[in-house]
């Protein structure tokens, strides 16, 4: 047994939910002038008539609490294979992040590490609908996005360990996951900086399709840009929404609204906390969805991705979710109230999906346990692989810094100058 054996952190017990009896409606809420091919409805608050959350008592009392604690009412029916794929991906993400916490506190990872626990329904709900050719742009909370996109868990873990076998050869670390073969275009440490990259990727898809005439019969390559609620007050967000709608780019902007930007409550930081409304302001559909419910997220994602692939333009999707841990592993998480955290813990997206699978007889308890056992083995192997992998060579420090490092990093003989003992001579005096 490895010293880094996976220790399963049990999911909360399934909590029975209340039904509101709401009739299903199209998830998209947009202006009457919205693009054809989607369902239009009057611009309104999607939260009206929903029961309040147990939010912290010190949030702005004048703001309507966000979210819903009601039973889902699905328009789409998923197959057994689809349900098991979603369950496996979500559990893989959760167990991976739990192991990251253990490895961080054992000194195997360094720097800031931001975990995704609680938000798995968003990553799985969108990314598992994408094709390999489609692109994903992430944030500093990017491990699970990478895994959902197909980057092997061992490559992500090795990157977190700073090893040469990581998906970025140990040079990216926690906040900068990247994989060209999987079209994962990077995690970004500064909020908002990934949105222009995603918009550029979507523009590239449109350009190849319309100008270079590299049209595919199955539509455009789609880009999904993930970012948080705190990003939605930044200039890049507004500029890119404008460009994306102006050029009808094949992109989906996904707001992972976990209600907190580090230690700032979303309700305190935004004049209108309903982020989805900013989509119709630019002429694109905006939708709010329960980000703790993978089937609801998946239903919205299907339509948004189809619109993008068919050339109908961008969509803004606000997924209201919650992180079960602090902002980072260095955060003691003392600002959020206990009642708020316990409220969302009772709405664990993995527990909810498991309950749905069992109620619909899509799989048995033993089949789900077999999936969990398989994932425990994957994570343990990933840790052993990362721990036994070599560190990057010193010469790698000068790679990917300059387009042409000759004259600086590479000497006349073609070798890296840092390998020359005289290269750093005299730097102590400097």
TrEMBL record:
<feature type="domain" description="Dehydrogenase E1 component">
    <location>
        <begin position="89"/>
        <end position="392"/>
    </location>
</feature>
<dbReference type="InterPro" id="IPR029061">
    <property type="entry name" value="THDP-binding"/>
</dbReference>
<dbReference type="GO" id="GO:0006086">
    <property type="term" value="P:pyruvate decarboxylation to acetyl-CoA"/>
</dbReference>
<comment type="function">
    <text>The pyruvate dehydrogenase complex catalyzes the overall conversion of pyruvate to acetyl-CoA and CO(2). It contains multiple copies of three enzymatic components: pyruvate dehydrogenase (E1), dihydrolipoamide acetyltransferase (E2) and lipoamide dehydrogenase (E3).</text>
</comment>
<comment type="subunit">
    <text>Tetramer of 2 alpha and 2 beta subunits.</text>
</comment>
<protein>
    <recommendedName>
        <fullName>Pyruvate dehydrogenase E1 component subunit alpha</fullName>
        <ecNumber>1.2.4.1</ecNumber>
    </recommendedName>
</protein>
<keyword id="KW-0786">Thiamine pyrophosphate</keyword>
<dbReference type="InterPro" id="IPR001017">
    <property type="entry name" value="DH_E1"/>
</dbReference>
<dbReference type="Pfam" id="PF00676">
    <property type="entry name" value="E1_dh"/>
</dbReference>
<keyword id="KW-0670">Pyruvate</keyword>
<keyword id="KW-0560">Oxidoreductase</keyword>
<dbReference type="InterPro" id="IPR050642">
    <property type="entry name" value="PDH_E1_Alpha_Subunit"/>
</dbReference>
<dbReference type="GO" id="GO:0004739">
    <property type="term" value="F:pyruvate dehydrogenase (acetyl-transferring) activity"/>
</dbReference>
<dbReference type="InterPro" id="IPR017597">
    <property type="entry name" value="Pyrv_DH_E1_asu_subgrp-y"/>
</dbReference>
